[in-house]
TrEMBL record:
Bilayer topology: Multi-pass membrane protein
Entry annotated with the keyword Transferase: no
Main subcellular location of this protein, as a coarse class: membrane
GO CC, alphabetical: membrane
Keyword Disulfide bond carried by entry: no
Recorded superkingdom: Bacteria
Location within or outside the cell: Membrane
GO molecular function: metal ion transmembrane transporter activity
Name of this chain's protein: Nramp family divalent metal transporter
Residues that span the membrane, as ranges: 20-42, 54-73, 94-121, 127-146, 158-178, 198-219, 240-260, 292-313, 334-352, 358-379, 399-418
Length: 423
């Protein structure tokens, strides 16, 4: 027997650690979904164009959205039901509203992350980006149809760890070799009307669309089918995944600020050229020999996001249909929904003809405009009679929610005003 087993409580904690690591998964999947366009594109672009000026905005957005994301893990761990069951308890109209907005977001988000994945793949395969997007969608579907949650759970953990370590190394090296600021260089201010569109797009997917909270809820139910997950484990898993997404957003911003900000270079709207510029950011500080390694890691990261997005939206749409129509569970229906999302997403990609940044800005802007509704639904759920009183949000979470809702609806109104009168 290990001598530490004789220490008071030590053996119990040593036994609990492996169980805790096994219970982790839904929060990491959420992080895998988040670390896509919002980080590789929006955060890096924010650092490249504005330096460190938007760092506090990224932190503030993550903080203000926290109560609405946390609802997924908190509600499911307390009730054993998904968020969608909670919406239905509030009324069929609430679940219907969620499902309609979720369907729109599903197609747009799938198209955005798929084109970004295809753009990364152009660095290795000399084929048109539209054809590569089709291959990405087919590969994602095959992985999900054959492996479903277990493969997704294991794959996301490995890719997340690899991307995190690689990006931290790149930023650490960039800090050491960062070029001095050229004489007379003045960083442009993001607080101008012309940049409102970018700010809203960046905040729309920072750290992810709020409907991801419903994915976390369903993934937690799937995890509980495999093993018991306590409320404490579920919340720790969620909080860890959320913290990782927030910190990595700053890390990507730092990479853009340290390497690209003072160069005068701007990201291209073309998917293939953007991917080349992004990989170049890493290779400038890690050496040209690292180019293919970085490209592979970035591709795997975005591919993981694509798989996660298709799975998450399909599960929520399937559950929404099942609850609204009082239909039985059906794996065949879930597969058809996956096929439908991918087909419509591919049509949207073909419409944009390889223009990555315009497509992503559209997707992230739609996410911001709809996220206010999703946030309001989650707040109603976590403060209403659908959940036991001891599990409802307390005063601190309510206050943070009020501020968050004010920020979301306020910026949505500002964006609409800018779009109608300032452009």
């Amino acid at each position: 027997m290990d001598i530490t087993d004789k220490l008071p409580g030590t053996g119990r904690y040593r036994q609990a650690l492996p169980q805790l690591l096994q219970a982790m998964g839904p929060g990491i999947l959420m992080a895998a979904a988040a670390i896509g366009a919002s980080h590789l594109v929006a955060s890096t672009r924010a650092g490249a164009e504005f330096g460190w000026q938007l760092a506090w905005v990224i932190l503030a957005v993550n903080l203000l959205k926290y109560p609405f994301f946390a609802a997924g893990a908190r509600y499911t761990s307390a009730t054993g039901e998904s968020l969608l069951h909670g919406y239905l308890k509030q009324g069929r109209a609430y679940l219907g509203l969620f499902t309609c907005l979720n369907a729109i977001a599903a197609v747009a988000s799938t198209a955005g992350v798929c084109m970004l994945t295809a753009a990364m793949l152009t660095q290795f395969v000399p084929l048109p980006i539209e054809l590569l997007a089709l291959l990405v969608l087919l590969s994602s579907l095959l992985l999900l149809l054959l492996g479903h949650y277990r493969v997704l759970d294991k794959l996301s953990k490995l890719i997340m760890l690899t991307l995190t370590l690689t990006t931290l190394i790149a930023v650490a090296l960039a800090w050491k070799v960062a070029s001095p600021v050229p004489p007379g260089f003045v960083s442009q201010s993001p607080w101008q009307w012309v940049h409102v569109g970018f700010l809203v797009a960046m905040m729309g997917w920072m750290p992810a669309p709020i409907e991801v909270s419903s994915w976390n809820s369903l993934w937690l139910l799937e995890k509980q089918k495999m093993q018991r997950v306590s409320k404490a484990q579920a919340l720790l898993d969620f909080n860890l995944g959320y913290l990782v997404t927030a910190l990595l957003a700053l890390v990507f911003l730092a990479l853009g600020a340290l390497v690209m900000h003072t160069s005068g270079e701007h990201f291209s709207a073309s998917g293939a050229q953007f991917a080349n510029q992004l990989i170049q950011l890493y290779s400038q500080v890690m050496g040209s020999n690292s180019r293919y390694l970085i490209g592979a890691v970035a591709f795997l990261c975005i591919f993981s996001t694509t798989v996660t997005v298709i799975d998450g939206y399909s599960r929520t749409l399937n559950m929404g249909w099942q609850l609204l129509r009082k239909a039985p569970e059906s794996g065949g229906r879930l597969n058809l929904i996956m096929l439908g999302i991918c087909a419509l997403g591919l049509m949207l990609i073909l419409f944009f003809k390889g223009a990555l940044l315009p497509l992503l800005e559209l997707v992230m802007t739609l996410a911001f405009l709809t996220t206010s509704v999703f946030a309001w639904l989650n707040y109603r759920l976590m403060t209403g009679p659908s959940i036991a009183k001891e599990h409802r949000y307390g005063l601190k979470m309510k206050l943070l929610s009020y501020v968050g809702l004010g920020y979301l609806f306020g910026f949505s109104a500002l964006f609409i005003y800018w779009k109608l009168f300032m452009q």
